[in-house]
Write a structure and sequence with these properties.
It holds the Pfam family MFS_1. It is found in: Cell membrane. Its main location: membrane. Belongs to the major facilitator superfamily. It is a single chain. The chain has 15 helices and no strands. By secondary structure, it is mostly helical. The chain has 2 domains: about 180 residues, MFS general substrate transporter like domains (Growth Hormone, Chain: A); about 170 residues, MFS general substrate transporter like domains (Growth Hormone, Chain: A, Up-down Bundle), CATH 1.20.1250. It is globular, with a radius of gyration of 20 Å.
Length: about 375
């Protein structure tokens, strides 16, 4: 390979990392904004759940419609177009005068972010075949880092004349810069594939393995979104706390070391893939019994730590089952996450009405229990 310097090898990786960071930034920011958006448009908890589901529905259908396109026309053009769309969606949100227009802007944002999510992850796998398992931990850690920072930024924007809208102004500016950088960067592979990696590409897609990965993420992301979108309301209702946005930041903060550790210990992925949902299920169940704010903060942090290990460990198995079609398989996983997030977030209002916040969170913990069983099956299918 001609490119040997650190920058020449990792320039593309850094753009992928920034793209995923901004996905986390948008996710965490929107979750933190939802309470204030609901207040501005006079929305109930159930209506807020439906507004959250709009973005998640877009996340679901984007890869369903365009999932295989990146493998056909190239990942660069997909990333450039849909990163630019993210800037346009922020403009639509800023001009919104009703919840309906806001929902339209959020739909465009969710659609574009979903495309960027799976294409950037697939691009990282293709460009770095020798170190991709380690980089999966790092790329998912960037999502968590963005989601940690965003609620704090939202907290600051509430003191500005534009309020929560200032968050989307900042996002639009970053998207414009990122679009320019993507246009200027070469997407050629930065590492030579080993004979084993080449053999995996020639092996064809393993549908049973892909189906298990999709099911794990269907459940996990649904639980994650159901928890995060309503954590602010949970703390306000059960603890009379106005610092739910700080708990949300703690949740995402815990994912950063967790995902870096998954990258460092990728050789133990066969055990980590089921240990992560096991710990998450136990902590979420414990959370429902706590009545002191400081203890809730601690439980949310540990819950986030275990949650952080689910996604990167699932992604380390993409190449094992993809047969060279990394974008297609990653898109399928993204579709599953969108369906899970949409269904569970939209259902949370109903669960809250029937069982209250604690009962609804216990239902989510039970769903994670199903994830444990499915995750334990994945390493046995490795080819």
């Amino acid at each position: 390979m001609k490119k040997t310097s650190y920058w020449a090898k990792n320039d593309l990786s850094l753009l992928f990392l920034l793209s995923i960071f901004m996905n986390g930034f948008e996710t965490g920011g929107y979750q933190a904004c939802l309470l204030y958006v609901g207040q501005e448009y006079d929305l109930s908890i159930g209506q807020q759940g439906m507004l959250a589901a709009v973005q998640l529905f877009a996340t679901m259908i984007a890869p369903l419609l365009l999932g295989a396109l990146a493998d056909k026309i190239g990942k660069k053009i997909m990333l450039v177009i849909f990163t630019a769309c993210r800037a346009l969606s922020a403009g639509l949100i800023l001009l919104a005068t009703s919840s309906l227009i806001f929902a339209a802007g959020i739909f465009v944002l969710g659609f574009a972010c979903s495309i960027v999510q799976y294409v950037a992850i697939a691009g990282m796998q293709d460009a770095y075949p020798l170190t991709r398992n380690r980089r999966m931990g790092y790329i998912t850690a960037m999502f968590a880092l963005g989601a940690v920072i965003a609620p704090l930024v939202v907290g600051l924007t509430l003191t500005t004349p534009w309020g929560w809208r200032s968050f989307f102004v900042l996002s639009a500016l970053i998207f414009l810069v990122l679009t320019f950088c993507l246009v200027k960067t070469d997407f050629a592979p930065r590492e030579e594939a080993s004979p084993n990696e080449l053999a995996q590409v020639e092996g064809g897609m393993y549908l049973k393995g892909v189906a298990l990965l999709c099911t794990i993420m269907f459940i996990y992301v649904g639980v994650e979104n159901g928890f995060c979108f309503f954590l602010n309301s949970f703390m306000a209702d059960t603890l009379n706390s106005s610092r739910g946005y700080l708990a949300l930041s703690l949740f995402w903060l815990a994912m950063i070391p967790s995902r870096f550790l998954c990258g460092l210990f990728a050789q133990h992925r066969s055990r980590l893939i089921y240990i992560a949902p096991l710990g998450a299920a136990l902590m979420l169940a414990l959370l429902t019994s706590l009545t002191q704010e400081i203890l809730v903060f601690a439980a949310v942090f540990v819950f986030g730590f275990f949650c952080g290990g689910v996604y990167p460990n699932v992604l380390t198995y993409v190449a094992d089952f993809a047969g060279g079609r990394t974008a297609t398989v990653t898109a399928a996983i993204t579709v599953a996450t969108g369906i899970g997030a949409t269904v569970i977030s939209a259902s949370f209002g109903f669960l809250h009405e029937q069982f209250g916040f604690n009962g609804a969170f216990l239902v989510l913990a039970a769903l994670l229990g199903v994830d444990i069983l499915i995750a334990a099956m994945v390493p046995r299918l490795q080819r």
